[in-house]
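User: Show me an example of a complex going from sequences to structure tokens.

Assistant: Sure. Here are the input components:
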Amino acid sequence: MIQVYFWVLLICCFLCIYRIGRGPTPPDRAVAIDLLGTVVVGFSALFTLVSNSDFYMNVAISWTLLSFMGSIAIAKYLEAKSFDE
Amino acid sequence: MRKLFLFISMFIIWLFMTWPFSPLKVQDLVTGVIVSILVVLFIGKGQQESKKITEFKRYWWAIVYIPVLVYRMIVANLDVLYRVLHPDMPIRPGIVKIKTKLQSRLARALLCNSITLTPGTLSVDIVGDSIYVHWINVRDVSQAQATEMIAGGFERILKRIFE
Amino acid sequence: MIYVIGMIFISIGIFFDLAGCIGLVRLPDVYNRLQSATKCVTLGTCSILFGIFLITGFSPSGLKAILCLVFVLLTSPTGAHALARGAYKYGVRLWDKSVKDDYSEVFKQQEGLQDVENDDTP
């Protein structure tokens, strides 16, 4: 059962990567990267059920916070970019 | 008082991170205390906003707030699910402007987060008193009606919590 | 029994995750993609974490799952809000069939002010 969940989440990751490669504008790519971060949090949280240790939950927590900081940084960059023109 | 509250919440988060504490892990607790004090010293000098931290009615309304938010989130997800999986994608997107009466900055931030999590709306920016909201299915209503439809319930509860 | 309930929560979460990613690919512009991304994937991941909390109980991984749930619930809408604002200021227009755009008036006022300032300085 859990094997099926991992495959579905892998399909989700590939959809995000498709949008990262295809996305017409930089904000599209930023949104896809943010979403990929949240999907990977779910992925590594599911690993705790398989591996019987709480190590992957630490990975999930730090991934949440770091992905948030990355999104904010990218958003600030995009916002400042328009002032150059 | 506010710093003490912040310190206690920081320390509870630390205890969650290192949950199975035993007397042998005193060094974990000491590290937690030191790190919490440092964090409180660095970020604890914001402006004094909430004055009544010991008023229990506020916590009661905060507990009421959570089921309302969860219910609206589930409705939001079914709504977005319908729009995404429908073959014709029935969307009418647009940005509308709504007014808020909340003054406290924390309350405004929570209102924006709640708006983002509720059906079909995504807060884009705050300028003064007005919040600009991206709405996936714009209806032809006036500004006051839009405010009531998007933020009505949350604003009343948040007003009771923070003001 | 509690295991079955937890697995049901996890299944619902995975289904919403998949729907959010399909929305990311199908919808037409950045703002609509953010709508689907934020709502579906936030609730999906929260549901997965809650299911893990139900299965593992008050063990270290269960409590960390609750902590992670709170963090996801707080950070994901904030990041979406910042990205939407950044995208608008970067210059991404709304979709062609959009109905209404009240936000552009803010920039019209600012540009008007800048024009006046430029006129004043010869």
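The lines above are the inputs; the final block is the predicted structure for all three components together. The interface with chain A takes residues 17 of chain B (CB under 8 Å).
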